[in-house]
Automatic annotation (TrEMBL):
SUPFAM superfamilies: NAD(P)-binding Rossmann-fold domains. The gene is SDR39U1. Gene3D superfamilies: NAD(P)-binding Rossmann-like Domain. The lineage of its organism: Eukaryota, Metazoa, Chordata, Craniata, Vertebrata. Residues 8-213 form the NAD-dependent epimerase/dehydratase domain. This is Epimerase family protein SDR39U1 isoform X1. NCBIfam families: yfcH (TIGR01777). Pfam families: DUF1731, Epimerase. It comes from Lepidothrix coronata. Residues 251-298 form the DUF1731 domain. InterPro entries: DUF1731 (IPR013549), Epimerase_deHydtase (IPR001509), NAD(P)-bd_dom_sf (IPR036291), SDR39U1 (IPR010099).
Amino acid sequence: MRGSAMRVVVGGGTGFVGRALTQLLRSRGHQVTHVSRQGGKDRISWEELSRTGLPLCDAVVNLAGENVLNPFRRWGDAFCREVISSRVETTKTLAKAIVDAEQPPRAWVLVTGVGYYCPSPTAEYTEDSPGGNFDFFSRLVSSWEAAALIPGSPARGVVVRSGVVLGRGGGAISQMLWPFRLGLGGPLGSGLQPFPWIHIRDLAGIVCHALESECLQGVLNGVAPSSSATSNGTFAREFAAALGRPALLPVPAWAVRAVFGAERAVMLLEGQRVLPKRTLESGYCFIFPDLAGALKEIVA
């Protein structure tokens, strides 16, 4: 597929990562159709997709998913169901559309999360490491990835397990920017927990690479090469330095649990050391392999 224009259908294409991916794909000559809540120009709704099926395309990507760390949403059964449905049900809908398509696409890419791997201060995880069955988030990723499986399909499947996505105008940075700009930022809890991260341009780049590389399939870790050495405290210090501010005020673990609830707080107070082993072996070349360079571009 490399070198030839593709028609790509992107679930959740209007979100933070979706906008960056769309921009990259179009800059490389590919056509993009979004699947979102409402239809429109270059866009179909989820309801329309279920009713009329997949438009003729060469590849499908799913990025859909409710923001788990939305601080304005209380962590409870209703929000949990929304988080699961926004990921698993949209993936099932796209997988069914691929199965039912008269002319199925040749590539099917799903972006999930490194929450699949068990939080640990010391263990290092590659794409071959086990996981997926020890807490709400790991089980969510397992269900999400299982929903994408299409046995015997001509569409080769790729799963990108993403770390914390760093970029301008959305994602984690948008929630942290003002406290840090005001000199009120700092590490969460002990600050020693691993902080698996990736620049948004690299996450979009890995997805594009997966679409354009005809032989690529299986799991790719979407984390920067140096992220396995990044702790939450390191991130807080580097982010503050990029803004020319101090990072003196650690946020106590109890405060994180009070805002997000115990189950969600795990995502912030614990972490995984993840290596992009297969991603690098596949030939992907990171634009932002180190944190200082990534943050400099974001706050410039």
